[in-house]
Design brief:
Largest sheet: 3 strands, antiparallel
Number of strands: 3
Distance between the termini: 65 Å
EC number: 3.4.23.36
Radius of gyration: 30 Å
Strand content: 5-15%
Shape: globular
Membrane topology: Multi-pass membrane protein
Structural class: mainly alpha
Protein name: Lipoprotein signal peptidase
InterPro entries: Peptidase_A8
Catalytic activity: Release of signal peptides from bacterial membrane prolipoproteins. Hydrolyzes -Xaa-Yaa-Zaa-|-(S,diacylglyceryl)Cys-, in which Xaa is hydrophobic (preferably Leu), and Yaa (Ala or Ser) and Zaa (Gly or Ala) have small, neutral side chains
């Protein structure tokens, strides 16, 4: 009688982790690789900027057409009024002797905001940067196309409130947008839609 012996080609069942793990072609995620926090917000930024720019342009045209220089039109007694002023300086009549430099700064702000907006994913950052962009464009157009000439144009201001210097819609948009951006930075909200405090916590517990 011959003994039955297992042949060399007999399949031997595998045991251990190698047998239990299913084959997969997916590569493991790199440690620390963050997923996008939301959709890109550049369209929202541009819409906000366009609306504010249009509103600023419209109100300036109405102010020039309806208000005589030096005339004061009361809104709320003497506290709030319309007063037409040609401003060669920055927002709220600051730096009146540096019109050409302010024009270049405004142009740089416009370019910088658009570049940042290309990768923006935070809605609140889009709102803040849109306000800054719309205001910067509004005053930049005045400096390029209004009297006395390119890079030297005077900005049209027409709103006077209390002791505050005369301003316009663009000035308000720039200041409010800047305040919002500072607040977002202080509280840790990042332009990519994440929040710095939460990101640090998740990295420490990982």
């Amino acid at each position: 009688m011959s003994e039955d012996r297992p042949t060399d080609n007999a399949a031997v069942p595998e045991t251990g982790d190698d047998a239990a793990a299913p084959a997969t072609d997916a590569a493991p995620k790199t440690a620390g690789q963050a997923e996008p926090a939301g959709p890109r917000r550049l369209p929202m930024l541009l819409i906000i900027a366009a609306v504010l720019f249009g509103l600023d342009l419209l109100t300036k045209c109405l102010a020039v057409a309806l208000i005589d220089p030096g005339e004061s039109v009361p809104i709320i007694g003497d506290f709030a009024r319309f007063t037409l002023v040609r401003n060669p300086g920055a927002a709220f009549s600051m730096a009146t002797g540096m019109t050409w430099l302010l024009t270049l700064i405004a142009a740089a702000v416009v370019i910088g905001v658009i570049r940042i907006g290309r990768t923006l994913r935070s809605l609140w950052w889009a709102i803040g940067l849109g306000m800054v962009l719309g205001g910067a464009l509004g005053n930049l157009v005045d400096r390029i196309f209004r009297y006395p000439g390119p890079l030297q144009g005077h900005v049209v201001d027409f709103v006077a409130v209390g002791w505050w210097p005369v301003f316009n819609v663009a000035d308000s948009a720039i200041v409010c947008g800047a305040i919002l951006l500072v607040a977002l930075t202080v509280f840790g909200f990042e332009p990519d839609g994440t929040r710095s405090g939460r990101k640090h916590t998740s990295e420490e517990t990982a």
